[in-house]
């Protein structure tokens, strides 16, 4: 069985359920979408570093978050 840090689990629950954000529905959806894109980009960079031995740069991760976040917002 895989054990996880309680604060990490709480963080994942917050990403899944954005009802704690007091904003309009559209703003909440945009914020949650960007957070999910950021988590995915960081996870992907981690996997590339760990399993493919690729060099990971923070600037590249941020650039990917911006571009994928923009695409997500445009397609809402």
Any chance you could write out the topology, listing elements then pairs?
Elements: H1 6-16, H2 25-52, H3 58-74
Helix pairs in contact: 2-3
Characterization of the model:
By secondary structure, the chain is mainly α. The chain has one domain. The chain has three helices and no strands. Helix 2 runs antiparallel to helix 3. The radius of gyration is 14 Å and the shape is elongated.
Q: Which residues sit in consecutive blocks of at least 5 with pLDDT less than 50?
A: none
H and E order: HHH
What's the total count of β strands? 0
Mean pLDDT: 81
**Helical percentage:** over 70%
Shape: elongated
List keywords for this structure.
76 residues, mainly alpha, 3 helices, 74% helix, single chain
């Amino acid at each position: 069985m895989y054990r996880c840090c309680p604060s990490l689990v709480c963080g994942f629950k917050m990403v899944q359920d954005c009802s704690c954000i007091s904003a309009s529905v559209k703003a909440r959806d945009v914020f949650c979408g960007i957070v999910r894109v950021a988590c995915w980009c960081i996870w992907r960079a981690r996997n590339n570093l760990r399993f493919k031995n690729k060099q990971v740069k923070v600037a590249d991760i941020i650039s990917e978050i911006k571009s994928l976040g923009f695409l997500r917002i445009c397609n809402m």
